[in-house]
Structure formats: C-alpha cells, structure tokens
Write a structure and sequence with these properties.
The protein has 11 helices and 9 strands. The protein is an alpha+beta fold.
C-alpha cells in the first residue's frame, strides 16, 4: 500500500508539470480528488489494511491528499499570474488614459444654489416639508375656500385617502409657523404639482421657491426691498422691477412681480407673486397651535413665490420648459 502511495505521488508530479492551463488543473483535481479519483479509491481500500499498519498508511494517504491540494492551488496561482503578465506584456504605462465625459449640475439645481445663497445673505434659513400634503396645510390654512378651483380634482392630484400632492410650497410656511414662534424668516424650495396641460411654459411638476418673513412691524417696504435685492443678485444691477396689484387668497394686499432687463428683453415679463400675509392665515395658524403667537393684531409678515423653472428660462434664454426634463445631453452640456 505504501508503494502504491509513492507511485501515485510520482504520477501526480508528472501530471502537474504537464498541466499549463486552469482547465487542465481542474481536470487533474477531479482525477485525483474527485468521487472516483485515485485518492478516493485508495481510501476505500483502507479496510483491507492490517490494523497495525492503518495509522501509518492513513497518515501517508492524508499527507498525499494535502500535498495534492497545496500543489494544485500553487500551480493555479502561477498560471493566473503568467496569464496576467502576458496580457500586459505590451502595455505602455506612459500612454494617456481614456477620457471620460464629465457630467454637470442641472440648470435648475444651479439656479437653486444661487437663489439660496442670495437669501442666506439677508438672514433667510432653509425649510422643507412633505410633498404629499393635507388639505389643511395646502388650502384651509391658506384661506383657500372649498369652492376654490384649485381644490377641484381636475386641477389637483388627489390621493384616495384625501391627501394630495402639494400645489405649492406655501404648505411649508404653514408647517414652519405651527412649529416655531415668530420671528420667522425662511425660504422653502421644492417641487409642486398641478394638473396643467404640458406645453412650452407649463409642466405637471415644477419647482418653486417660496419665502416667508413674519415678525413685529414687518412692512410692505421690507417685502419690496427683499425682492429687489434678490432680483439684482440674479439678474444684475440693471434689472427693473414693478409690483402690479393682483389677487391671492393668502395675501392682502397682493402683487404680481414683473421684471425688465436689458440682458433678456426690453419688454416687461411676469416673474413671481407676493404680498402681505393675510390675517386669516395667521388666525388659522393660531387655531392649530392653540395660542396667540401669530395674533394678526400684533404680528405682520410677507410671503413671495418664484417658479424656478420660469426663472431659469428667463435667466438662461431657454425657449421651452420641456427642455429641462428631457435629459438631452446636448442641451444640458451647455451649462457644465
């Protein structure tokens, strides 16, 4: 039996020397260590070995099995290293690498970063809220009555449980006032949703940046100064701004903001809406808080809202709002 083990060891060494591929190494493993391999069959003959010889024969057989495993693993590593060396034999490390195209920040994200930086300079902090809202935060608290067109299912995305996709980020302003006493000075950027027909100037999902400033003796002059500062930061010092009377249910008085800039157009363009916070909004907040922290007799405030998509179109000369969502690299690469 010991002679057979020695012969098997010599035979394995010869087979291993003639094996130069990973496939042949695997075949060699099966031939010696598989279910019908030489080592397995030899192990089955241990029952015929005399009892006094079994420890010696068993030890020699186990040592041969371990030697075969080690040699197969070592030879596999050598073959793999040789293949890798051959693969890179003609590689020139001094050659330049393959160029990879660099991405860019989306124009809406670029504009939002500029806008947030501008408002932070005058003391506004950033606020956020859920995109799935309740009717109270989106309409009731904002003095929007049940018969208002915005509350129609044909104008707003309602969910089966009665909640809705927010139609503006004004809902964030309500949540901020519910959670914090005055004074408050926040901006609330984020997506909003409306059932608009998609065309060159409308999308079902768009981006807003709304602001709220509340405290004692906040005046319309503060609102106009804030808006004018922001517009000059975005469009330059030559921009002209006018406030045109308008109606919003949550502000009184309310205004549309028109701008005219030599960089864009000599004609007036509607850009945003704003106004002084309606007393009914403060009353709704007081009722939800259970105190008089926002008593309209002692607290005033202003609010404004910009459509970031429309602002980007004006600033960057984009003729069609749909270009902002088409992910056309030829368009987006212009803003890298």
């Amino acid at each position: 039996m010991q002679e057979i083990i020695h012969q098997l060891s010599d035979q394995f060494k010869a087979d291993l020397n003639s094996s130069n591929t990973t496939e042949s190494i695997e075949n060699l493993r099966i031939r010696y260590l598989g279910k019908q391999g030489h080592i397995t069959l030899l192990s089955q003959q241990m029952r015929n070995v005399p009892p006094d010889q079994k420890p010696i024969i068993g030890s020699a057989l186990n040592q041969l099995r371990q030697t075969i495993l080690d040699q197969l693993q070592l030879k596999t590593i050598q073959i793999q290293k040789a293949a890798e060396a051959a693969r890179y034999a003609n590689f020139d490390p001094s050659l330049p690498g393959y160029p990879f195209p660099h991405g860019s920040i989306h124009p809406i994200s670029q504009l939002l970063a500029r806008a947030v930086a501008a408002f932070r300079r005058i003391g506004f902090s950033l606020a956020s809220g859920p995109e799935i809202e309740t009717e109270f935060h989106c309409f009731d608290a904002l003095n929007t009555p049940p018969d208002h067109p915005a509350r129609n299912e044909l104008d707003t995305f309602y969910l089966p449980d009665g909640r809705l996709l927010r139609t503006h980020t004004s809902s964030v302003q309500i949540r901020v006032m519910q959670q914090n006493p005055p004074p408050i000075r926040v901006i609330a950027p984020g997506p909003a949703y409306r059932r608009d027909e998609i065309d060159a100037t409308h999308l079902a999902q768009f981006h807003q940046l709304e602001g709220l400033c509340v405290g004692p003796d906040v005046s319309l002059a503060d609102l106009k100064g804030t808006i004018l500062f922001f517009l000059r930061e975005m469009f330059g010092p030559s921009v002209q701004c006018r406030f045109r009377p308008h109606y919003f249910p949550f502000t009184e008085p309310s205004f549309e903001i028109d701008i005219r800039s030599p960089q864009i157009s000599e004609e007036w363009m509607e850009l945003a809406g704003c106004g002084m916070v309606h007393p009914a909004v403060f009353e709704a907040v007081c009722n939800s808080r259970g105190d008089r922290a926002y008593d309209p007799d002692t607290i005033t405030g202003f609010a404004f809202g910009f459509g970031l998509d429309r602002l980007a179109m004006n600033l960057l000369g984009i003729p069609d709002i749909r270009m902002l969502i088409e992910n056309d690299l030829r368009f987006l690469s212009q803003f890298s």
